[in-house]
Amino acid sequence: MQVPQDGEDFVGQPWYHGPLSRQKAEDLLQQDGDFLVRASKSRGGHPVISCRWRGSALHFEVLRVALRPRPGRPTALFQLEDERFPSLPALVRSYVIGQRPLSQATGAVASRPVPRQGPIRRSFSEDILPDGPARTEPLRDRKRSDSQPAGLEHLWRPPEDPPGPGASTVPASGLPRTGSDPVILKTPVPLGSVADSLRASDGQLHAKAPTKPPRTPSLLLPDASGRPPTYCELVPRVLRVQGPPPGHSCPESEVPWWEAEEEKEDRCFARPQAEVSFCLPDTPSCLLGSQNRPLEPEVLHTLRGLFLEHHPGSTALHLLLIDCQATGVLGVTKAQRGAMGVASGLELLTLPHGHLLRLELLERLETLALAGALAVLGCAGPLEERAGALRGLVELAVALRPGAVGDLPGLAAVMGALLMPQVSRLERTWRHLRRSHTEAALAFEQELKPLMRSLNEGAGPSDPGEVALPHVAPAARLLEGEELPGPLDESCERLLRTLHQARQTARDAPRFREAAARRLRGFRPNPELTEALTTGFLRRLLWGSRGAGAPWATRLEKFQRVLSVLSQRLEPDP
């Protein structure tokens, strides 16, 4: 079989169904081993493999890793867990023909592709403008393939029928596109289904389509500045008429804020002017209304589906991005550096005027832990559902640990959820986890719990090579006057280790910034998942728009009581 090249067109593959909801995808999966690839609406068009296994429909997000353009190598790689592939068809071929499980946790094997019937349905959110005329390939209805891997060979051959006369091409992308990525063209659709087009008179995008759209737009839409490359909306803006020649990449107008180089300046002592907060300002939410109630069921259902569509590695990178911003490691402006007198939030944490930042980080840690506990205690269905939620949190913690993503504040929050008394008392649920998901249970008991214990005692790993963001909660609690538990001699040793760790962290702040930027290079986050992991969103989700303004101690006490009631309902005391 020919080795696929970078940019191999997956839109022409019969197993690719384009924009398709989870429910419709699950309806198409009839037998164990049936699979299809669809463009996830909540992921901004990223591909998701939907597969039926052991009677359940499972969904696996395909992570796309962008590379710097170099001659002779692909501009992006695709992966599910560990191995990376130069194209999506290469990934599908490897897993299907080799009968490899899509994930080690589920053991799901994709063996029979479900071919789409008819052309790919297009949505307004996916429209882009191509660099120039593109080859069109009419789609043919295909029958279901047999169950043998050899029967897949003909499914990956691109159609050889020549395009009909007068065929129109208005391609759209199934993947978010960065400036260095080649344009991935989709198959054509009838002109009547085109929801958006260009006016030849003014060369700008309009929300309403003209009566007669052009046949082949030859203009290039530049990336929206200051935002991740996504096609969730099209903003009217002037287009660049001269596009790059076919086969060449187009440079991005602006790099994301987490990839921007820090300004070089002569550092000298500057007297602090004010306390600095890195909390994001309140903006209109795409998931919550302007006035929301606590724990709205529709929002919780949406969030559950959103997290299920992302594998733990992707969620860990989203969490690292938000934690770096909240800690002041990435995205610190020159005005903020001037106001706090230092270059990084890791330095500000150790100073007297870092009081506000320490309180914000401690609240974020507790809020994330409460949300994680709610993900388990809110499963009122069968026991397997709660055990699956526990397994998901354990897999996320494994992805966050040192040597992987290395987000230790995120790891502390996830472990705080797993070790919360309302969760740890669920004996039947933990027993089912050990029986059905033994690998996750062993990782929690033998690796994660000892690691978290050492981190809380100031003795865990902290080298910027394996850690992108250090565990700052012990130092923050200590500097806020919290007493250390345990005997006096042990608490004194722990105090000295914590203070030494805080000094080392402040000294290594530039190295942590480099380590975090290196892990996030080429990462393009999902806007909805990014918002769902911010402190402001979680505060409104758990306590509502009115309760979010109450004092932190009051909010914490009330929600702890809510979790206790949920825990008792799931497994009452004997």
Automatic annotation (TrEMBL):
InterPro entries: Ras_GEF_dom_sf (IPR023578), RASGEF_cat_dom (IPR001895), RASGEF_cat_dom_sf (IPR036964), SH2 (IPR000980), SH2-Ras-GEF_adapter (IPR051853), SH2_dom_sf (IPR036860), SH2_SHEP1/BCAR3/NSP1 (IPR044102). Keywords: Guanine-nucleotide releasing factor, SH2 domain. It comes from Muntiacus muntjak (Barking deer). Residues 137-146 have a biased composition (Basic and acidic residues). Residues 311-573 form the Ras-GEF domain. GO terms for molecular function: guanyl-nucleotide exchange factor activity; phosphotyrosine residue binding. Residues 105-188, 204-226 are annotated as: Disordered. The keyword Lipoprotein does not apply. It comes from the Eukaryota. GO terms for biological process: small GTPase-mediated signal transduction. PANTHER family: BREAST CANCER ANTI-ESTROGEN RESISTANCE PROTEIN 3 HOMOLOG-LIKE PROTEIN, SH2 DOMAIN-CONTAINING PROTEIN 3A. This is SH2 domain-containing protein. The keyword Manganese does not apply. Pfam families: SH2.
